[in-house]
Amino acid sequence: MKMVRVDCLGANVSSIGFGCASLGGRIGARGGIEGLERAYEAGITWYDVAPSYGDGMAESILGQFASMKRGSVFICTKVGMRPPEISAAMRFLKPIARASLAVFPAIQPRLSAMKSKPFKVPLSAELIRTSIDDSLRRLRTNYVDVLALHRPTREEVMREDILRAVERVVQDGKARAISIAGESKGVIDGLRESLPYRLIQIANNPFEQNLRISADIAPRRTFITYGSFSSIDPLASRIKSDKEMLNGLREMGYQGNLSEMAAAFVVDYALATNSAGVTLFSMFRKEHLAFNLLRLAQAPMLHQLNRIAAALSKDRRQTEPMCGDSNDRRIERC
Ligand SMILES: NC(=O)c1ccc[n+]([C@@H]2O[C@H](COP(=O)([O-])OP(=O)(O)OC[C@H]3O[C@@H](n4cnc5c(N)ncnc54)[C@H](OP(=O)(O)O)[C@@H]3O)[C@@H](O)[C@H]2O)c1
């Protein structure tokens, strides 16, 4: 397993992290724990969760998995989003929906469109204090490695009472570092070095090349990226309509049907553009874990991917994504 240095934790962690957004929702507890164990056996040490994930169940299930191996896993949880209310009828129907999904995976978009979604709650010092305590109880631990503000506004990221509340969480030993997670480039571009957010979680794929951020905010910050597979379908359509791109991908060694080529490319892109950070994938299916680990072992260098990434970006000037150098932590064009 490739490891990366997370300076603010003084630790090396797996460069692929396990995203637990579906744990307790689409994925039931038993299958979820099996998936997490499989990833752990394969060397994955970073687990990303939130109180809102899995209809509010993800932290408890992750806690069952992690409680016996707390010293050898890293956990990031969040504050700021609430799970939707799930009616008794929906709770009853959930196992049926999961069983149907296992047989007919194509129904997933329809099921997910029918589901109520987590919603944002305004951040406050009181929310941060109670949310971290609730998270620790569900996770069966007395600390998390990272507490992230979940989709904060620009105003929340800068606000004095929130800064004091997150610093207090660290002083009390309940979290070792603070992050912002899932926010727009607009929010992170406004970060100053003095702000306590040492990790930044942000979407990154060939259609959302968000790692082209200001070099001012990059030093000593670790990027945690997600959102790879949402770009498979648009990329497959693009390859279908662009013969030159199809040939370019084949010359680079990408094989299989359009979806397989797109999946391989988006994993390679995610890993190569965030080579110094952690790339989150949901990988409950064992073939997905195996595929993503294989790509990690074989991942081409970013410059090999740039031709395709450039064609996917309309703005020529912005087609060379920033990437971190895993040795010296600089962010550079490559
Ligand atoms: N901070 C935020 O606001 C925010 C937002 C979104 C996500 N996240 C974090 O990032 C994690 C990942 O989220 P994501 O949206 O990026 O999900 P993702 O990893 O793109 O996964 C989405 C789907 O892709 C499947 N998949 C995994 N590997 C695949 C492969 N090689 N080929 C084809 N499909 C594959 C997964 O299946 P299986 O799981 O069934 O194997 C899952 O159904 C989340 O779980 C969460 O922890 C954070």
Structural summary, described in words:
By secondary structure, the chain is α/β, with parallel strands linked by helices. It has a single domain, classed as NADP-dependent oxidoreductase domain (TIM Barrel, Alpha-Beta Barrel), CATH 3.20.20.100. Helices cover 42% and strands 18% of the residues. The protein contains 13 helices and 14 strands. It has helices at residues 29-41, 58-66, 88-103, 108-114, 125-139, 154-158, 160-171, 185-189, 232-241, 243-251, 258-273, 286-298, 302-312; strands at residues 3-6, 11-14, 16-19, 46-48, 74-79, 81-82, 119-120, 144-150, 175-181, 197-203, 222-226, 278-281, 322-324, 331-333. α2 crosses α5 (125-139). The longest helix has 16 residues, at 88-103. Mean pLDDT is 87; it is low at 315-334. The chain binds NADP nicotinamide-adenine-dinucleotide phosphate (NAP). NADP nicotinamide-adenine-dinucleotide phosphate (NAP) is lined by residues 19-22, 48, 151, 181-182, 201, 226-230, 263, 267, 280-285, 288, 291-292.
Give a short overview.
With 334 residues, the protein is an alpha/beta fold.
What labels would you give this structure?
TIM Barrel, two-stranded antiparallel ribbon, about 20% strand, binds NADP nicotinamide-adenine-dinucleotide phosphate, about 40% helix, about 325 residues, globular
Number of domains: 1
Under the CATH scheme, the architecture is Alpha-Beta Barrel
Which ions and ligands are bound to the chains?
NADP nicotinamide-adenine-dinucleotide phosphate
Instruction: Please identify which CATH superfamily we are dealing with.
Output: NADP-dependent oxidoreductase domain
